[in-house]
Specification:
Blueprint: H1 4-7, H2 12-23, H3 31-41, H4 48-61, H5 66-90, E1 94-95, E2 98-99, H6 107-127, H7 131-157, H8 162-187, H9 192-216, H10 229-232, H11 238-246, H12 250-261, H13 266-278, H14 281-300, H15 307-321
Antiparallel strand pairs: 1-2
Helix pairs in contact: 2-5, 4-5, 4-8, 4-15, 5-6, 5-7, 5-8, 7-8, 8-9, 9-14, 9-15, 11-13, 11-14, 12-13, 14-15
């Protein structure tokens, strides 16, 4: 399997510059905020989205520039702010095996830290003085927030509708991938039709990323988050949604009752995950993910051949095959 390091090769200098810039992006007079930055820098994951920004810019123009770097940093800051707020909402003490800010501070302080990171990102967006990027960033904040709210709504109402599921994951995940790819193209002044193609590729990769994340929830592996956490919150993700939609048995009725009652014991979690797995839910989710990845790769094939294009195709495969 191709490694993330190999995928980064065409933009290795950009990746190095990004890591340095991201670490230096937040400065505060607060001792607590300094501690928070130290925690965040130790738990920010693979930085797939800024890699996407750099590769898209390079696929479009053969290189990145300072605006590309700055855009990648501010978008990752927005992503980081959403993770901080998500951890508060989920009351999560650990992310990817590393303590979250919740482990060090109470919710009041952690929420304010998320706001600080988000505000810092918005200031950097304004400093770029590009109305298209400012508009994308502004719309992004709205989409991310509404997507999270809608996910809670669908869980509360036990909505079993794949179109609704896809729209929710578009808002809460795919839109950030989409913005990362679109902005990469904008920063190198790509033609509008190319920008639109980049945006769509990013969106598709975001869909695939979230579906893979949702599949993780059904297996007891070390994937960086508690297994069954989504189900414990009443979220009906694609594997369970498919099984509930296509299987009509007394066991299905029992599963619906558990979801409606919203009190999830370990036995309930085992029931729901087993129901999804044994009734084709995982297989269906993997097929949908494969279809989405194939569409993304077909669009990437329209770009001129280059190392960056090959890395984008490899990134698509990496997202689909990742283990955590």
């Amino acid at each position: 399997m191709i490694t993330l390091e190999a995928i980064q090769a065409p933009v290795s200098q950009f990746v190095q510059d990004f890591h340095l810039a991201f670490e230096n992006a937040l400065h505060s007079k607060s001792e607590w905020m300094s501690k928070a930055i130290e925690v965040l820098n130790g738990s920010t994951g693979k930085h797939v989205r800024p890699l996407l920004t750099g590769l898209m810019a390079t696929a479009c123009a053969g290189k990145t520039n300072e605006t590309t770097l700055e855009a990648a940093v501010l978008l990752e800051m927005i992503h980081t702010a959403t993770l901080i707020h998500d951890d508060v909402i989920d009351q999560a003490a650990v992310r990817r095996g590393v303590p979250t800010l919740n482990a060090f501070f109470d919710n009041r302080v952690t929420v304010l830290m998320g706001d600080f990171v988000l505000s810092s990102a918005l200031l950097r967006a304004i400093a770029l003085n590009d109305i298209r990027i400012i508009t994308i960033v502004s719309q992004l904040g709205r989409e991310l927030s509404e997507g999270e709210i809608r996910q809670f709504e669908t869980a509360d109402k036990v909505v079993i509708d794949e179109d609704v599921y896809m729209e929710v994951i578009r808002q809460k995940t795919a839109t950030l991938f989409s913005a990362s790819a679109e902005v990469g193209a904008i920063t190198v002044k790509a033609p509008s039709e190319v920008v639109d193609r980049c945006k769509r590729v990013g969106e598709l990769l975001g869909y695939a990323f979230q579906i893979r994340d949702d599949i993780f929830d059904y297996f007891r592996n070390d994937v960086g988050k508690p297994t069954g956490n989504d189900i414990r919150e009443g979220k009906i993700t694609l594997p369970l949604l498919y099984a509930l939609k296509h299987i009509d048995t007394p066991l299905r009725d029992r599963c619906l009752t558990v979801l409606q009652q919203k009190s999830f014991s370990e036995e309930d979690l085992s029931l729901l995950t087993s129901f999804a797995i044994e009734n084709g839910g995982i297989g269906y989710a993997e097929r949908r993910m494969a279809e989405i990845i194939a569409e993304a790769k077909a669009l990437l094939a329209e770009f001129p051949d280059s190392e960056a294009r090959q890395s984008l195709i490899a990134l698509a495969d990496f997202i689909a095959a990742r283990k955590k």
